[in-house]
Each structure stands twice: as structure tokens, then as C-alpha cells.
UniProtKB/TrEMBL annotation, chains A, B:
Name assigned to this protein: alanine transaminase
Organism, scientific name: Artemia franciscana (Brine shrimp)
Its EC number(s): 2.6.1.2
Transferase found in the keyword field: yes
Source taxonomy: Eukaryota, Metazoa, Ecdysozoa, Arthropoda, Crustacea
One family name in Pfam for this protein: Aminotran_1_2
Keyword Transferase on entry: yes
Length: 517, 517
């Protein structure tokens, strides 16, 4: 401080000059007082406070440590395991799932149209690629598309939705293609950022446990996060009285404006019944809530008796006044049987928006120019796959079926194994790609965690990682009822590896319980 | 109102219930009073006000009208022209530029690795693709990458920057890959959203004229837009006294925290001298500003005597204290000789950030998961092109050179032609992809525009579009000195088409001047 105290003191009186510009100092006057600033323009103290508080557990500290361990293993460090198993993220290809040939062939043709003359590509691939290129300006995947995506692909998406929903119309102008589903979820949620004249913030209802994209985006946007708990004792069911409790409490402090439903559930794997969806829609109507229907796992339904019902279909079939409700539904190329996370395809279908609001939505995404043409291409193939009689049909169907059947078997294996391990219990994985088992942590383990300043489930997950190389995400990253502890694991490791992982889990849990009992 | 007035009146007393739920009504109590609401949850009145006010002229109403005209032409409507020329956006492939073969071959191999066995792809392409796939989890472009991108590509980017800057070190951990440059520009700018304790907002200095991504993002983020005017009479030069005027005025109402420099300029096409860059850096240091160096046109320098100097190189060569300044520089796959807009590749190099702020930046982008692997692949090829002796070298160089030479000729042609048209003047296009000529509008035309409720330059551009099919962007979308009128046109139409377009311009302008004199 000595070096620049005079200059600093001369600045202290001015509210608009907060820094000392003496060479080598450059501290803020605040920093002069608290010593926390290295003279930088952007500091933790003055940066965007919303970004500071947001959390995205799926890529949090545990995952960073897992990557470090991978590097340690690669550099020869000895561990009680030979590889890290990243069961933290729904990333099928990373866990060894092969791409669907048809998707990749069409992508290759769109990227490098010279291949359209190659005899090595089936005609149905070429036909898809030609249609997509026909929708690209200048016939090139290198041209910007409309901000909502290529019109012909949006039309294919609408046709797919119409077919999925038994003929209920879908208008292509309601389809917004995006880089993965996350981007369009965030674009639509952004519409809601506002406070009412009485100073109350807008709020968004999300399930607990939830996929942390929602809590992260809500935090970033400065919205209020309104939790409704899923009922673990009833297969992670969605209880309307809990929704009512949540919204009634929320109205005391904010304006609830939207509800997020994840179906099939992430991280919880439940599949909502049609009745349940009807009840949610009626609830949302009573409470004047915009519906976010996160349906990215619609192809991932495994349990006997479970069936996917789209929110849009149920809403339309309920008729007036429900069929006029504002809703957005999302699909991603990253999930389903495709698992094309890295190619970033996704869409939103946004219905019943005020046309003026819709225009603002379109304007707001236009500054980002357009979603990747390759992601759009993947989405096109997903909604417009080979049909019987086309040359790629048999291979496509066999690959799709193999992935979904194997996922179904793994879903069963995971839940059954966890239920056979002491002090763990796990609901049936009806759909999606995850299990969210509960761990009954011994009191001593909870105390140990607290002594280390860690949440008990975080402590557990770090122990698991360090001792077995298995990387899961602690339940607190998704939300859980206070006093309960969980983790999310994907069911994506290939069957042999998954079996091995589950056995390691059994050993770890047995040792852990013994150590802390 | 009659139908539900009783219910409405019963609600009026409650601040938390604002809507009537009677079937067919559903009006808000406010709407009941002003009649502006159709019962929707999200309305212009209650939605995000920042999104309402943001504008992105490059995709504004004029472009929407141009697309309508294209559809009218396609459906057989007779017009005084047979095609729309979209000179509104820097989209080279849409205007007929062919992709660089090497880029597309590598993309095809990464997308569909079966092709690695094909004899039709050169070995250097295969080597690039193998390295990229080696950096993908599970060896698949379908796996999520790290949020900042694939490590090996980030390393290639850092090596490219180091070479570009004559050996000044670049650390790969400072490289953030993104879906085009826009995404990383927005991610970094988002860090600045905050108010100081005395309620003053943060502000960002941007040039006028500017690329409207900046004004749009500033508006969306609720930051203060601080304009500094470029000097049209001096080749769109950047005058430090004008920066000082701007920042001094701004300090009365906000906290200026950053300055955006676009070099080469968009829409103005100027290339900054080294001395000018030094002066800007010293100004930014004096005023404690974070530097956004938009250098996406760094390959696009045409004028004799003009040379691109990167901000980072100049900043580092200036030494302490400047070399410690916080800065982000951006590159895009959409510009240069590549023009790969639709594949969405881009990067930011972010230097000298407070490590804690940097951690928040990384966290904030992690919720978006990762940029497209194909966009990352394109960026890899751009920074790691074929070298002499590799099989693709000759073709790559001849394609690159052809594009850049043709652009250079078109840059000259455009400025010369505009200067030969009455009541127009245009600075030399030293770099980038645009000309930003001034039009001296007759008083009568200005009056006519005002009578129609249009800005004069918007009126001019609409007239041009309707009469010639040429779509440009009015100067007001970029900013211009009050009382002056401009438009931005790209130099991207292929030479013959550009010539034709410029002749149409001459005719239009001649007629326009005659009509309104």
C-alpha cells in the first residue's frame, strides 16, 4: 500500500474512479482495503454475480478430479484401479456405443458432397443428403441457415411430431432447431426474465431431483428456482399436492411463471402416466404456468407397462382451454438410441405463443446466427429415418434395436444390483439413461464428511472415485430431500464394463459401511 | 369484460392472483383494463424487457422481406428483377464460394471414420482426422468434448497463434473453442453484467458503426452501450481523442469496463495500424478496460500497405504493465478464405484473467456442454493446414489464394464503383468483407421516409430491395453519425454477379436522385 497510498487517498473521494493507475500497483481502492484484488479489471467481487453462484454438477469438481486421475494413470501413477469409468454424464459414445451408420453416412455426404458420386453410399443416404443440401443456401453446409434452422428439416421435424402424436397437427414454423436441446431450453427460458412492478421476481418450478441445466440457467438468469419434490417412495412419482405446496409457498416471494417437467425423468428414470400428465397440465393451467416439457429421453422407455406420452398430445387431446396453453417441448440428438452428443442437434417445438413474443424469441436467437448445419442434419435423419424398402432400413433398425435392447437390459441390471447391495436402494429405471439410488450413510460417515467441510454425498462420491475410479455425480448436484443421500450413475457403460463397475460398487459400499459403522 | 367482471373484481384485491380463469376469458386484470392481453402467460408486457429492445439488423425486417420476395419470385410473381441478391450478410458459400476441399475431407473422415480406409482421401487428411478422433472420448465425434473443446485442437490453436505472433507464447489452456466466434464473444461479455454498489451499470465501449452482435448482446445483458465514432473522413480511422470523449461522457452515468475493437473493421473495412493499436491499448490501460479484440477478419486484408497486427502481439511487445492486461481475441471459421459459416467453428484466446474469474467463465460455459465437434474440426484444420510436402498442400494453397485474390479484386471494384456513382462515396475496403458507403440523400427523400415513419436509410434500402432485388443493411443497423446515411453491402457476390449488382445500383441511385431532387 505504501507505494501508492497518496494517489489512492486522492482517489478515495471520487465514486467514479476506483483504481490507482501507478505502474505496478493498479489496485482498486476497495482492494487497497481488503487486499483481494490484483489490479484486474474483472474480479470475483465485481463480475456477474449470477455466474458466480450457478452450479452445473454434471461437470463439477468431481469430474475435474476424475480427469486429473486419468492423466495420473496415463503418466504411470499406481492406483487401485486401471481406468476411470465416467458414469457421470449421459455420453453414450464416450462409453463405447457405436454411431448409427445411416446418421454418419448422411453427415459425411452433406459435409463432402463429392461423395454423392461414390457407389459406397446407399441411395437413401444420398437422397437425404441431397434434400438437406437443397435447403442450404448456395447448396453448401458452409452457409448460414435461418436462425430457426433449415426449412425442410423443420418440416420433417413437424411431420415426425405429427406422426408420433397420432396425427395431431404440428406447424413447422413452431420448430426451432438448436445446438443440442440445451440451447433452445435456455433460449425459451430467457423470455421469462423479469420482475413485476411490485418488485417480485419471476420463478420457474423444477423437480427435485432435476437435471442441473435448469438450476444453472435459472441461477444465471436471476430467476427464482421453485422446487417440487418427486416421491422416491412411489417410483419418483409426481404428486400434484406437492406441486400445489410448492407453488403456494412460492407465491409469497415471487411470480411463478413456468414449470419444468422432465419425462422420462433425469436423473430419476421414471416415466409419467397419461393421467399424471393430464393432472400436471390442469395444474399448470390453474396456476397460469408456461410448460417446459423436457422429453429428450422419449425413445428411452424400458419398463414393461411404461409408455411415453408427449405433453403436447395430452394437452391437445384435453381440448379447450388446455389446448391453447403455452408450451415448449424439446428433443436432442444426444440421447435416444443415437447418442450423438458431440454433433449438437436439438429442437424445440413452441406452441401457442403470443405472436409478438414469438417474434421476440426469433429475434433473440438471430444474433447467434444459426445452429450447426451438421447438428441439423443429424436431427433430420432422426426424424426421417430409413423406411421399409429403403436400402439402409435393415441395418438402421438392427442397430437401433440393439442399442435400445441393451440399454433396457442394463437398466434392469443396474437397479437390481443396487438393490442387492447393503444400505442402498434404487427405484426401477423405467426410462432415460440413469439410476439415482439412495445410500443410507452411517452417522460416522456423515460426521467425517462434515469434518472435511464436504456434503456427505460429495464425500461418498469422492471416496468412490479415489478408491475405484468410478465417477458418479452426488445427489446434491440434482437436489434431494434433506437428510437423504443419493448419486446419479448412467447406465451407459457397455454390459461387461457395467457389470464390473457394479461389482466394484458392491465391494466399495461393503467396505465403506464397515469402515464407518 | 362483462362475462367475467364479477370474478375479475373479486381478484382485483389480491396482488398475487392476476388472472381470471373463466373458460374463454383468462384475461389478466391489467389486460381487463387495457385490453392488450389474450390471456397468455408470457406477453410483451411481462416478458424479458432486454430481449424486446435488442436489435440485430443483419437479420432484421429487411432480410425477412427479402426472403418473402424470394418466395414470391419462386411462385411466379413478376418483378423488375429475377433474383434477390443477399448482400446483407457475410456468407461466402451462400454467394457461390466453394468450400476448401481439405477442410471438407477432414470433416467427412471425422464424421464417418469408415472412410479412413478409402484410397480417395489423401494421407494428410487422414492424419488430421486420426489426431482429432484420438482426442474424442470413445474415438467418436458423437461424444461430448470438454466444454472448452478438445485438448489437442486447443493446443493446435495455441501453436497457430504463437506462430502468427512471431513466437510470443500462447497457452492452450487460454483457448476456448466455441460455436462460431459469436458464442465465445457472448460468453466473455456475460462476465461483465453487474452494477456497482452506487447503482451504476457496467458499460462496454463499441465502435460506431459496429457489428450488431455487440449492440444486441449489450442490450440483452442490460449493459450500457458506449459509442465511439470511427472517423469516416479518415478512412474510418480510430481516433484516441474520440475514445476519450466517449469514456469521459460515459463515466457520468456508468462504469465503463470494456472496449470492443473490430480489426479489420466490420462494417467499415479499415485495418488498424500498429501505432493505432498501441494507442488503443494504452487508452484501455489508463481507463482500466477489458479489451475485446474482434479479429475474425485477420486473413482478410487486401489493401497495399495494410497489414494485420494482432492486439495480443502488440500488447505483449509493449511489455509491462500492458502485457498483463486482460484481453480476449476471437477468430471464426466463418470468415477468412474458408467462409464455413454453417459449420460453426470459432475460438477465443482469453489472457491475463484473474484465475478465479477464469474458473467462473469455464463453469458458465459448462452448462452448454460443448461446442460442436465438427466446428472444432474445422477450426483445427484452419490452424493446422497442409504444409509444403504434404499431398494436399498445392490444392489447398491454390484454393485459398484464389479466394483471397478474388476478394481483394472485388474489394477494389466495389469501392471504385460506388465512388463513381452520383451522391455516393465510399472509403477504400482495406480488409474484411464489406463496404459501408455513404449516400447523400436528397431532402425530399428524407421527408418521404419520415412521412412513412421510416428512417431515411431504411427507406432507401427497402426501395432498393423492391426495385432491384438487392438486399443490403441500412447504416442505422450499425450506427452512423446523426444526419449521415449509409448501408453495408458485402463484397461476396461472385465477380460477374457483383458487377451486375453494382450496375443495378448505379441505375437505382440515378433514378432515386432524379425522383427526389
Amino acid at each position: 500500500m505504501s507505494k501508492c497510498s497518496v494517489r489512492h487517498l486522492s482517489l478515495l473521494g471520487s465514486p467514479l474512479k476506483r483504481r490507482c493507475f501507478l505502474k505496478g500497483c493498479n489496485m482498486s481502492t476497495t482492494a487497497l482495503l481488503n487486499g483481494s484484488d490484483m489490479g484486474r479489471v474483472v474480479t470475483l467481487d465485481n463480475m456477474n454475480p449470477h455466474l458466480r453462484v450457478m452450479e452445473y454438477a454434471v461437470r463439477g469438481p468431481l469430474v475435474i478430479r476424475a480427469s486429473q486421475i486419468e492423466k495420473e494413470l496415463a503418466s504411470g501413477v499406481k492406483k487401485p484401479f486401471s481406468e476411470v469409468i465416467k458414469a457421470n454424464i449421459g455420453d453414450a459414445h464416450a462409453m463405447g456405443q457405436s454411431p448409427i451408420t445411416f446418421i454418419r453416412q448422411v453427415v459425411a455426404l452433406v459435409s463432402y458432397p463429392v461423395l454423392l458420386d461414390s457407389p459406397d453410399f446407399p441411395d437413401d443416404c444420398k437422397e437425404r443428403a441431397r434434400v438437406i443440401l437443397g435447403g442450404c443456401k448456395g447448396g453448401s453446409a458452409g452457409a448460414y441457415t435461418d436462425s430457426c434452422g433449415i426449412e425442410v428439416i423443420r418440416r420433417h421435424v413437424a411431420a415426425y411430431i405429427e406422426k408420433r402424436d397420432g396425427g395431431i397437427p404440428s406447424d413447422y414454423s413452431n420448430i426451432i432447431l438448436s445446438n443440442g436441446a440445451s440451447e433452445s431450453i435456455r433460449a425459451v427460458m430467457k423470455l421469462l426474465i423479469n420482475k413485476s412492478k411490485d418488485g417480485l421476481n419471476n420463478g420457474v418450478m423444477i423437480p427435485k431431483p432435476q437435471y442441473p441445466l435448469y438450476s444453472a440457467s435459472i441461477a444465471e438468469y436471476g430467476l427464482e428456482q421453485l422446487n417440487y419434490y418427486l416421491d422416491e417412495d412411489n417410483g419418483w412419482g409426481l404428486d400434484i399436492s406437492e406441486l400445489e405446496r410448492s407453488v403456494n409457498e412460492a407465491r409469497k416471494r415471487c411470480n411463478p411463471r413456468a414449470i419444468v417437467i422432465i419425462n422420462p425423468g433425469n436423473p430419476t428414470g421414471q416415466v409419467l402416466s397419461r393421467q399424471n400428465i393430464e393432472d400436471v397440465i390442469k395444474f399448470a393451467h390453474r396456476e397460469k404456468l408456461f410448460i417446459f416439457a423436457d422429453e429428450v429421453y422419449q425413445e428411452n422407455v424400458y419398463a414393461k407397462g411404461s409408455q411415453f406420452h408427449s405433453f403436447k398430445k395430452v394437452l391437445m387431446e384435453l381440448g379447450e382451454p388446455y389446448s391453447g396453453m403455452e408450451m415448449a417441448s424439446f428433443l436432442s440428438s444426444s440421447k435416444g438410441y443415437m447418442g450423438e452428443c458431440g454433433l449438437r442437434g436439438g429442437y424445440a417445438e413452441v406452441i401457442n405463443l403470443d405472436p409478438k413474443v414469438r417474434a421476440v424469441l426469433e429475434k433473440s436467437i438471430s444474433a447467434k446466427l444459426c445452429p450447426t448445419v451438421i447438428g441439423q442434419t443429424v436431427m433430420d435423419v432422426i426424424v426421417n429415418p430409413p423406411v421399409p424398402g429403403e436400402p439402409s432400413y435393415d441395418l438402421f433398425m438392427s442397430q437401433k434395436k440393439a442399442v435400445l435392447e441393451s440399454l433396457s437390459q442394463r437398466a434392469t441390471m443396474v437397479a437390481e444390483t443396487f438393490n442387492s447391495i447393503p444400505k442402498m436402494k434404487c427405484n426401477i429405471v423405467q426410462g432415460a439413461m440413469y439410476a439415482f439410488p439412495q445410500i443410507m450413510l452411517p452417522e460416522k460417515a456423515i460426521e467425517k464428511a462434515k469434518s472435511l467441510g464436504q456434503a456427505p454425498d460429495v464425500f461418498y462420491a469422492f471416496q468412490l472415485l479415489e478408491k475405484t475410479g468410478i465417477c458418479v455425480v452426488p445427489g446434491s448436484g440434482f437436489g434431494q430431500r434433506p437428510g437423504t443421500y443419493h448419486f446419479r450413475t448412467t447406465i451407459l457403460p457397455q454390459p461387461e464394463k457395467l457389470k464390473m463397475m457394479l461389482e466394484k460398487f458392491r465391494e466399495f459400499q461393503t467396505d465403506f459401511i464397515r469402515e464407518y459403522s
